[in-house]
Amino acid sequence: MTTVDASPLAPAIVRRALADAAPVPFWLDSPLAPEPQPPLDGLQTCDLAVVGGGLTGLWTAVLAKESDPGRDVVLLEADRIGRQASGRNGGFCMATLTHGFGNGLRHLPDEVDRLERLGLENLDEIERAVERYEIDCDWRRAGEIDAAVTAWQAADLSESRDLLLAHGRDIEWFDADAMQAEISSPTYHAGLWKKDRCAMIDPARLTWGLARAARRLGVRVHEGTLVETLEPTSAALVLRTPGGALTARRVMLATNAFPALVPAARRRVVPVYDHALMTEPLSDEQWAAVGWRRFQGVADAGNRFHYYRRSADGRILWGGYDALYHYGSAIRPELERHPATFEKLAGHFFQTFPQLEGLRFTHAWAGVIDTCARLFQFWGTAHDRRVAYVLGYTGMGVGETRFGALVGLDLLDGRPTERTSLRLTTTKPIPWPPEPLRAGVIGLTSWSLGRADAGEGRRNLWLRTLDRLGLGFDS
Ligand SMILES: Cc1cc2nc3c(=O)[nH]c(=O)nc-3n(C[C@H](O)[C@H](O)[C@H](O)COP(=O)(O)OP(=O)(O)OC[C@H]3O[C@@H](n4cnc5c(N)ncnc54)[C@H](O)[C@@H]3O)c2cc1C
């Protein structure tokens, strides 16, 4: 069996395949992209202001209107709706609320089954909203396969299978031959198909559809509107933007990896760049050589993993592996272009699918995610509970954002619910240390994870210490 490793495969093949790749996210490069909404101009007031027009902000706006149609809601987005992580991700819309079952079990063992149920209900509700608002986002509840590409990953995966079966999950195990029959690659040792807990979607079209639904419900949406400051007064909160100011009774911050308007939120997330490639459409012969008739999302089971999927128009999206942090928590457009990572990813693609040699990539992009030390979302409030925020999705927020928005609204409305009583909701990850320690900790952890993958999964002293403390770093 071939293994997927860090050594680039035949550099000439890789460079040729990437030569014409546009440095833009595939999903956003679409004729269906809507016209921009006008920026905020002058002085306005509202009941609820939502800052950020990704999935968290959009769900907040839609759910706020669904629960109270009389509430006056304004959404302010610095750039364009869905232009950041929400419109440029892999499109795995997952039920997990804890970055996977194993991570949930580690952090919240007493709650994990309840969280699995709530996560599945959340995914079902997203599906219903997609139908209700007639959002054409290529929704396909195909599930996700964890693929073992080494013998030690296969052994780990079989333990996961036993654990998931004991918790009543709907899964199917593929040994090496069955995995080959599902998707043809010389790298596979085994696979675990988690059938009902992931839908594959076009994420940009989900954001555009939710924005349209929000506007139809009466939400005022302003794009090109960076909120520069948030000032509390005794009666309200004032959001200042380059063209005006919005005075609101309540504010939901949905700004993900970008600098939070509440200082306390800043220390618990770091911006990490995740990268992805999209191929040109495969021919019928190429698809026949790959199989993959059931459209599952796939992620390999290493510490530094690849995720990949089919698109509705016959391409393959291939992403992950490098999760890059830049000193000082930097976020800059030029950091989205990292040729060495794209070449590494392309090399791994052809190691996985050698039968596709000659296929070209049309798009190569990166986006920034909000990594926290426990790898799943947390909430907070500020200014006498008149401001709420949810952050920390760590690369698995497509489904979680709706749950994040629900809890955020519970907190702003002062409404005790099953959700607000959870330890998931009432606890937070530990903060990252300041620089230069921050970059050192992240660098050492990334390096150690790479070593563990290369060393049959053996975790060094540093990773074992983090494991004991319940800390992690991931994309
Ligand atoms: C390459 C990549 C692949 C991924 N793949 C997956 C996947 O397959 N499955 C999965 O579950 N997750 C995935 N993720 C993660 C997922 O996309 C995110 O967790 C999710 O989209 C977070 O949504 P959000 O609305 O919180 O953040 P964002 O989409 O980042 O939205 C935040 C918005 O806030 C705006 N903003 C920030 N500051 C201000 C301000 N001061 N004023 C006004 N607006 C502001 C930003 O412009 C931005 O539009 C991936 C992410 C990336 C980058």
Quickly list its features.
475 residues; alpha/beta; eight-stranded mixed β-sheet; 14 helices; binds flavin-adenine dinucleotide
Strand content: 15-25%
> Unreliable segments (pLDDT under 50, ≥5 consecutive)?
none
Mean residue pLDDT: 95
Q: What structural class do the secondary elements suggest?
A: alpha/beta
Calculate Rg over CA atoms: 22 Å
- Work out the number of β strands: 18
The major β-sheet equals: 8 strands, mixed
Annotation field: number of helices: 14
Folded structure, characterized:
The chain has 475 residues and is an alpha/beta fold. The chain is 33% helix and 22% strand. It has 14 helices and 18 strands. Helix 2 runs parallel beside helix 7. The protein is globular and about 65 Å long. The two termini are 27 Å apart. Flavin-adenine dinucleotide is lined by residues 51-57, 76-79, 83-86, 88-92, 94, 226-227, 254-256, 258, 274, 276, 319, 367, 369, 393, 395-399, 401.
